[in-house]
Amino acid sequence: MLMLSEKLKNSEDSKVSSPFTEEEIKILKNICTNPIFHKNKIFKVESRIFKTDLRFILERVCVFYNLTVEQFKSNRRDRNIVEARRDFCHLAFKKTKKNMTQIGNFMNKDSTTVFYHIKLNSINEDEIL
Q1: What is the CATH number of the domain that holds 93?
Q2: How high does pLDDT run on average in the chain?
């Protein structure tokens, strides 16, 4: 297939005859109507979660488990608090680009705590977000 510039050079009179075949013209028209090439078109991105910061995930987990942030970050080891922490660790690790140390610092816990929770299966991860 000849390049565009070669076709223009090879055509004797570009004003009279087209350097493209009818099929190539149809292909070029289809390419031009593609919405990717429209500059002032804004594309709507459909996503289930837009905010992937730790505070947003913490708020959702606390609402789901009916906890306060103070209870979540406390040293208590009640079953529902531990389950909330486990789900938070799973969601934070999957939805954000934070490492285990950063997630642990946010929770006022050690990174090994985050590693322990991620090693176990999540409980209600799909229902929270």
Answers
A1: 1.10.1750.10
A2: 80
Cβ–Cβ < 8 Å for 128, 88: no
CA distances 48 to 17, 44, 81, 95, 98, Å, are 53, 13, 25, 11, 19
CA 64 to chain centre: 23
- Whether 25 is in a domain gets the answer no
Give the tens place of pLDDT for each residue, 63-107. 999 999 999 999 999 999 999 999 999 999 999 989 999 999 999
In a domain, 64, yes or no: yes
Judge whether 92 lies within some domain.
Answer: yes
pTM for the model: 0.60
The answer to whether residue 29 sits within a structural domain is: no
pLDDT tens digits, one per residue of 117-128 = 999 998 888 888
Query: Rounded to the nearest 10 degrees, how much is the dihedral formed by the CA atoms of 102, 105, 107, 109?
Result: 120
Which residue range is the domain that position 107 belongs to?
Answer: 54-128
